Amino acid sequence: MNQGNDPRKSLRISLVGNRFQHENDRQSLISSLRQSLWFLIPEKNKKPLATNVIFDVTDEECDEMFQALSQDTNAPWHEEVKYLSKSWVKAVMSQPYRKNKKMRRPFDYAKKKIVDYLDWRAKNNITKEIAYYSALEDGKEFTKVLKTGGHDLYWYGVDKDGCPNLWYRADMTIFEKVEVRKTPKASALIMQAALDKMPSNIHNFNFIVVFDKFNVFKAMSKPTLAPAFVRTFLKISPDRLKPAYFITGGAGGFFFDIAAKIAPASVMDKTTKCKSREEAADLLQRDGILKTDEIPTFMGGEYEQDENIMRNYSRMMKEIEKAMYNEASTCVHVSSNTLICRGHF
């Protein structure tokens, strides 16, 4: 990058709600934030992408894509093709072409995006590891081996269309225990397992990021953590994101503002910045992501999310599958003295 045109130098920093004993501490933190967050997104993705235009894809065109993928019998990812959903393949094919917003992605361009995903999946042994950890009923090994930094990323509930809700809560991240090298695999197994269980008519998900309360200094002790997660997120979920809600605060707002400058427009155009959890709760109800009686206690509601689901990989996947298929789920706490049974867990 040409240092003379480095946009990081023009950023105005405002860390509201955080106090520093010395100005040097503040400047050091700002420098670290700039360096780590600028590389959240690969260089090729820093230009805005065409958004808000979806082209039609016929069943015949989709079948042609599957046929083309299936013909590569010697490819290391060949066995992964059977895990693709028709609705997602259509979504990838239906997006506008980056080089010409007025036209649909060319067939070969869309195929390359799908192949890149399949290749990543095969190289990281995703299918076998999902099966392995899903078979462990207590979920303890997943936490011990991979998810060392807390149960901060989890699936919980579905929206009015049956699309699942992915949650990230920074206040639940134990930064001092996070093993950064394991984070991409843990995040991938959590995200991909639910995506594999989607019904045929569903291909996308909602993402609720609760990033308003966390220890900034502990977070910055792992400067590569956020970039590692974002790279994994973009690899797993091309064209899968429905709406996203980013709850900020002091430092959380800073993270959002920098990400907004460098993230693909295809992501940021779907992301709503919320100044508070209460504001987010209102939007989630308005947009049909959560019902009034599904607003969790940590967002001002009365619904108590079941930590046994959040902490147990195997159970989490079983429950989110039930919710997506609108099947009866287990009884869970809604308030301090109420239990109900419902499909939305």
TrEMBL record:
Residues 153-301 form the CRAL-TRIO domain. It holds the Pfam family CRAL_TRIO. SUPFAM superfamilies: CRAL/TRIO domain. InterPro entries: CRAL-TRIO_dom, CRAL-TRIO_dom_sf. Signal peptide: none annotated. It comes from the Eukaryota. This is CRAL-TRIO domain-containing protein. It comes from Chaetoceros tenuissimus.
